[in-house]
Every structure is written in C-alpha cells, then in structure tokens.
Amino acid sequence: MKIAVVGTGYVGLVTGTCFAETGNTVICVDIDRTKVEKLASGKITIYEPGLELLFERNLKQERLSFTTNLEEGIRDAKIIFLALPTPPGEDGSADLKYILGVAEDLGPLLKEYTVIVDKSTVPVGTADKVRTRIALKSKVKFDVVSNPEFLREGVAVEDFMKPERVVIGTNSTAARKVMETLYAPFVRQGNPLVFMDERSAELTKYAANSFLATKISFMNEIANLCELVGADVDSVRKGIGTDSRIGKRFLFPGIGYGGSCFPKDVQALEKSSTDFNYDFKILKAVMDVNSEQKTKLIPRIKDYFKGELKGKVFALWGLAFKPHTDDIREAPALYNIEELLKEGAIIKAHDPESMENVKRLLGEKIAYCETPYEAAQGADAVFIATEWPEFRTPDFERLSSIVKNKVIFDGRNLYDLPLMKELGYTYYSIGRETIYGK
C-alpha cells in the first residue's frame, strides 16, 4: 500500500518507518529541508531504541523516502497520515494551525478517494474541522479518520509493532476496510482493533494519558503523606499494586512527570472541558500536584546546606524526562536546574542521550560530563533526576572517594534504604525515611 506521512517528528518518523517495515511504500513529508536532507541521507534525527535499524533497512530497500514537496509526497497515496505538532497555546489549548493548514493544502491535491488520518493528539472535533478544510477545495471523495498514537518513548517501536490495541475513529465503511487492511499485520496475535466514532477516538487519547498522569500524581501525594506519618511509600506501592483493579504500573513516586504527552494532554483536556463549561476538578489537582512535585527536593537541599547554595557544585544525573529517550520537554531536571542556578549553585550534568538537546537550550549555563563519575568529581552532592539503568548500580566506593559530601538527593528512589545506611550515605528520596550518614 502507498502511504504518505506528513510530519517527520517523533510520531511521524516512527509511524512511517514501522509501516514501511511491513512492506508498505511510505513517503514522509516535512517542510524542514535540513531535516529531510538528513533523513534521506540515512541520518536519523531522533533517539529511539530499535528505530535506527528499521530506518536504515527500509531506506536501503527503498520502501521509505522523504520529501519537502506535499504534492509529490501524497501522489498515489491511498492513506495520508497527519503527524503534525499540536503545541499548547498560552491558554492550554492545542494549537491546530499546522494540521488545519496542511488539510487546506490537501484539498486541491487529492485525485482519487483517499483516507486522511489524524495521527496527532488533537481535541474533540478536530476530525470535523479537517474534513471541512479539505472539502473546501477537494473535488473527490475522501474520509477523515482519527487514529491516535499510544507510543511510549523508549519503547515506541515495540508499541507500534505489537500494540495492545489500535483505536480507530470512523463511521465510514470504506475507511474502516482500508484501516483494517493496513493494521492487519500488527494485530495477528489477537490484540483488538477498536472501532468507534471520530470524537470518541479523539477523547480516548486524552482520557488515557490524563488517567495515567492522575495515577502518578496520586502516588506522589501518597508519598508526601508517607513522609509526614512515618510510612514507607515502597511498601504502600507494593500493597496496592497487587490489587488487579489498580495494577503495578505508574505507581512509582518521584519528582513528577514530564515529556511531550502527559503535561500537554492533561492541560488540553482541562481546557477542552472548560470550553464546554465543565469544571474538571481532578485534572486541575493533577496539574497542581505535578507542578509542585518537580522541585520537591529543593527545600531539602537548602536545609542540608543551611540555605547557602552559592558556589555549591551538584552532580546532576539525568536530564531527559525519562530513560531511553533524548526528549527533554517538560523534564523535571530542567526545573531543578533553574532553581539551583537561581541560588548560585554550579551544575555538572550527565545524561546518556539528551545532553546535546539541553546544550541547545541552556548553552554553557551548566557543565556537561561524559560520565556520571566525571560529573561527581569534586561535587558537593549528587542529584538524581532520571532513572537511567546505569545509575541504578553505581560504584558507591568510587563515588564516595570523589564527592565532597556523601549525600544523594534521589528524585527517583533508585536505591534501597538499608544499603544507603550500610554505606554511610546521607540519602534523601521521595516518600521514604531520610537516611543520615555517618
């Protein structure tokens, strides 16, 4: 099948590459000429485990190609995916200018029946708007389908190739048949294609991400309460996680969620609710909790150093909003950097993948180190902001020999309390007892 994917960001590149992997001919379209030239020459523009191998294979076998020309990209395409950014506006609403702009451009270019698919995360009613924009200038029949993505950064290829479910919003029999054929190779093990109307599909994506964000914020509230009453959040987490109605996932407390989806989607759903005169109280609380949680450790840092942070050096382990990605959007690390720099602190940071992205944002305001130990050399304290696997079992003996103080501020609860006590570290975490070193 001939497929066009408009937009070569995170969603667009993963979508195009994975569809090519199942034998489709995919052309990806983007207005960024520099990015298109890089991709066409075999240079992948995002970090995502497992994607580069598929990208290179399908590029070599000419099932995957790139262009800046929309007319060329959609020529003979049976399906056109819109994988364009929907950045939040000042009021929290999703900005649809890119999607609606392309929709308007598509109208006069369509030559035969085509299925237009909204792959981006969009508010309820967007499919109707896209349909109207295309119809203004189109002389052929077409259908607009909502097909939200549920990709987790770090495991996006696995999520796409073996999805738990595929949500497809359409009331068209013809479009349904096309989408069933397209996704058949991905659901051979019996995972469902869930068909519904377009508006329900659009809301499903926001509902899913907002629920998971709520789960995280709820657990962070429990962690904060644990500290006050003398309970251990790890024990509570295990106790409730074994309840099948609750489940084990998204129960780990920390310094809040970030990334490209949860913050934006929660905000957009709350704004959509307001537009329909509905007061979504829970989502407001979720956003408030997460905002406060991101800098949860800053007061403890100030207490430890008796309010004097000027000139203090912090080894910051982790910059990405989560492990296995280079994405720094809404990363808690950035909020803590901002607070520490305000106090005159010095930051030496290490992250396996996202340091270049942070450098483009912050420049030389902080130092960038090739290893976590380089960051820790001569530091006054270690601050853990991202739970990368390489941070889970460091050489503590080596670490204690190169830091000025054996103190760790752990925003991701990586280490066992008995171990920290045995090693003589002063150890601050989330929702657990503070360990005071020897």
How is this fold's topology laid out?
Blueprint: E1 2-6, H1 10-21, E2 25-29, H2 33-40, H3 51-60, E3 64-67, H4 70-74, E4 79-82, H5 97-106, E5 114-118, H6 126-135, E6 142-146, H7 156-161, E7 166-169, H8 173-183, E8 193-196, H9 198-229, H10 233-241, H11 262-275, H12 281-293, H13 298-304, E9 313-317, H14 332-342, E10 346-350, H15 355-362, E11 367-368, H16 372-376, E12 381-384, H17 396-402, E13 407-410, H18 417-423, E14 426-428
Parallel strand pairs: 1-2, 1-4, 2-3, 4-5, 5-6, 7-8, 9-10, 9-12, 10-11, 12-13, 13-14
Helix pairs in contact: 1-3, 5-6, 9-11, 9-12, 11-12
Provide a descriptive summary of the structure in words.
The protein has 438 residues and is an alpha/beta fold. 42% of the residues lie in helices and 13% in strands. The protein contains 18 helices and 14 strands. The chain has helices spanning 10-21, 33-40, 51-60, 70-74, 97-106, 126-135, 156-161, 173-183, 198-229, 233-241, 262-275, 281-293, 298-304, 332-342, 355-362, 372-376, 396-402, 417-423, and strands spanning 2-6, 25-29, 64-67, 79-82, 114-118, 142-146, 166-169, 193-196, 313-317, 346-350, 367-368, 381-384, 407-410, 426-428. It has a six-stranded parallel beta sheet, sandwiched between helices. It has a six-stranded parallel beta sheet with strand order 11-10-9-12-13-14, sandwiched between helices. A two-stranded parallel ribbon has the order 7-8. It is elongated.
